[in-house]
Specification:
By secondary structure, this protein is an alpha/beta fold. The strands form 4 sheets. Strands 3-2-1-4-5-6-11 form a 7-stranded parallel β-sheet, with helices on both faces. Strands 12-9-14 form a 3-stranded mixed β-sheet. The protein has a domain at 2-169 and 220-246: Rossmann fold (3-Layer(aba) Sandwich). It is globular, with a radius of gyration of 19 Å. Helices cover 37% and strands 19% of the residues.
Amino acid sequence: MRVLVTGAAGFIGSTTAELLLDEGHEVIALDSLVRGRKENVPRRATFIEGDCGDVELVTSLGRFDACVHFAARIEPADSMAFPETFFSNNVASTFRLLDALIGTGVDRFVFSSSCAVYGDQVEMPIDEERATKPHSPYGQSKRMVEEGLEWLVRQGRLKAASLRYFNAAGGTTAHPERHTPEIHLIPIALDAANGKRSHLDIFGGDYPTPDGTCIRDYIHVSDLAEAHVSAIAALESQPALILNLGTGVGSSNREVIDMVKKVTGVDFEVRFVDRRDGDPAAAVASNGRARAALHWEPYRSELENIVADAWAAHQLL
């Protein structure tokens, strides 16, 4: 298959592009490099620097059998300050991309959505039937794209999978986790362990959780990549999929920090600061639907394995 991967210079996009290549697909890797790094793009892919919302550019690339769309702004706190940027980048650009793809006859579209569409839920785990109530413009931007895809599927114009994943983490030596700016707990904690940061800030210690810190469902990036590739295949027989990608197990910020210290053997300073806007107290996935639909198992995603893989990759940065 000929597959367009947008955001292919990012953490999850580059890992997925690598897996698609390993499975014999032709990959066109599109990234503006505003947030991504060109060195992340697999060498076997055909790299195009550009904006996924550039209809003329995307149309010029010819017909694709499928598109896996990762390109987006991902910082919930920033979205609270600059919602217009997120709606422009995450929503408007995506619909321009879809306009170009549908015009050239693309058949399957796999969308990188987020558990942020659920907002601040109380009961865990969260299944796909739970009402969506985004807690940030970031989450709202993802839900808006999902809703647009539902209409396009209903009209028979394409097949689409919206993959609502929880906290991507881990990494490989070829694709370590790194973002600009870095907002994710595990790589920041590893920076503290490596001496690249003087300390680690934890945003809030008074959440309604057992230890007062946020709880998240961490999933290994390689498990995520496999789910995206499986979703392309699943769309051959199913016109629409909305699936959670997570493990069903939550880890608190304190537990993650303790695991980082255990894996690295390094103690480092931790400071508690004010809560960050847009952060729900907990987000843990019910993943039974994804397991069944994709014949998928997140077998790499135990917390210790995630941190160990992230640490091995992080030391090469």
